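Notes from the 1:1 (GR / supervisor)

We went over the backlog. Supervisor wanted to see one worked example end to end before approving the batch request, so GR pasted a single chain during the call. The sequence is below; no edits were made to it. Supervisor asked that the structure be written out right there so they could see what the output format looks like.
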Amino acid sequence: MNKDHHKIEKYNSYDIYDFLEDREFRNYVLLDSASDESWRRIVEEYSSESGDSAFDKARSILLNLRAHFENNGLTDLEIRARIDQRINTYRAQTTKHNKKLRTRRLVWRAAAAVLILIGMAWLLQWNNRPTVMYETGNGERIVVELPDASVVHLNGNSKLIWNRHWEDSKVRKVFLEGEGYFDVAKVDGMPFDVVTDDVTIEVLGTVFNVNNRRQKTKVFLEEGKINLKINEKPEESLMLEPGDEVEYNAGDENLIKYKLEEGNEKITWKDGLLIYREEPLIEVMKEVADIYGKEFMFVDSALLDRKITSTIPLTDWEMSATAIQMAMRLEFKEKNDTIRIKEKD
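Structure output shown during the call:
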């Protein structure tokens, strides 16, 4: 009797709870493994035209959950992880608190039953949450269209939080960690605020870039006008005009404003490029490290202030690292996301 036959036979006595408990079944549904020959045979065996079989009902529950979470930005991996976590958590709780459940099978069946209830409650909670969060990982860039028609480009390792009930408020407000490029739609009588750890940027309709990393916030204005306030000193404000950049250091509370001749080069990251002109290598490495979630150390401190003029592609970490090494004749040694940098022999 071959392996596929054993796989098909094991589902003979399954009910809806057994299917929900079965990790192979969950992976089949959530990863859409319909092209797998053994699963095609299982579907033929256990699915019904009416959709009333235990197989069909369990699959329907998981598909509905997956569709909802996909609409709200969760990946397949995140969906599977959340469901697995719920089951494992409830198994542990049931084993601890229900000593009368003597068999592992009864414990698992109870966990599957509660999965259905928790899943539905979770959907309700998700729908009623007050905010929605957009987040990027290492080297990831996304474009977010907000419900007010504003568009935000998020750079790697960044987070944006939006108030879902913005129409009931007198102001549209987002919270930013990392870097974002904003093209804000004008809504009459409703300003748009971008809040970081250190500053608040007030706008009506404009285009600008915000970089909030390492206790520093940099704001570059491309179009329109914005008003910038220090969160610790809300009574003080600074008006920016196109081409202006403001840098605020939360450590020493130093605020600098200057005009950029090549301001557009500040926002080329959203198109997958970092452009530098006579920039100290230490500053370049900080920006690249923030985007990719890396740490770095220089073997020779004399390299810190060496100037770099180059264009760095943000295709992926390997491409960016190669471009920097070639432009500066450097050698990178990487171990556990820490980059050791030295001059090439």
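Supervisor's comment: Residues 89-108 have pLDDT under 50 and may be disordered.
Batch request approved.
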